[in-house]
Amino acid sequence: MAGGASPGEVADLFYSLCGRRRDVRGQFTGEPLDDAVLRRILGAAHSAPSVGLSQPWDFVLVRDRGTREAFREHVAAERDTFARELSGEAAATFSKIKIEGILESTLSVVVTYDPDRGSPAVLGRHAIADAGLYSVCLAIQNLWLAATAEGLGVGWVSFYREPVLRELLSIPERVRPVAWLCLGPVTHLEPAPDLERHGWRTRLPLDAVVHAERYPGS
Fold it and tell me: Tens of pLDDT along 17-32?
């Protein structure tokens, strides 16, 4: 094994990494990110499995302050839209939750999906049209775990409308923006996810989602 670690030690490190990963909002420091580290993280994302080896992802690195400010304004408006749908305890809880670290993070990585990559015949996608989109999600997970292994934070911003992001970054109509990821050094990673800490939701136990042979109730 690399570095002399045993298979058991590698497994322990991996499971610990999965448990440490967090969706970061308020812990970014804004400190510079070494280019070699960023290259390793993007390399991990690019090594993800993909349907038909289509590798349908692209990574747009957004450092420009003006672009990030414009996106943050849009996200803030969408946050207000969601907040108006809430009432009572849910509204009070949501008001305390920070949903993004767009300006505080060092940079943003926008991950896109190009359905034409590998076309016209993408091996394995003929029966499941979304298999390419799933491939992009695997690349995002690789990126997230690699960043966590490097001691960095990642935050997935989901309060946005795709047409707005497409126009902001000049993304072609055929290409779908899948994720705006805030990336950079952090002060720390919280011991529990933010939504759990703030009382929005509680993580389900594993046994609640593992079933034998058939989906429950079928």
Answer: 999 999 999 999 999 9
Residue 101 to residues 71, 73, 82, 180, 189, Cα–Cα distance (Å): 11, 12, 18, 11, 14
CA-nearest of 74, 60, 43, 82 to 177 is 60
Contact predicate 107/62, CB 8 Å: yes
Task: Please write the tens of the pLDDT for every residue from 173-217.
Answer: 999 999 999 999 999 999 999 999 999 999 999 999 999 999 998
- Provide CB contacts within 8 A for 125, sequence distance 6+: 51, 52, 54, 131, 132
Do the Cβ atoms of 115 and 174 come closer than 8 Å?
A: yes
Find the length of the chain: 218
pLDDT at residue 218, rounded to an integer:
64
Q: For the residues of 35-87, what is the DSSP string, one character each? A: HHHHHHHHHHHHTS--GGG---EEEEEE--HHHHHHHHHHHHHHHHHHHTT--
pLDDT score of 72: 98
**Helix H or strand E encompassing 183:** strand 176-185
Find how far residue 181's CA is from the centre of its chain: 6
**What is the rounded CA–CA span in Å between residue 157 and residue 193?**
15
Say which amino acid occupies 50.
S
Model-wide pTM > 0.85: yes
* Contact indicator for 18, 96 with CB cutoff of 8 Å: no
Name the DSSP letter for residue 189: -
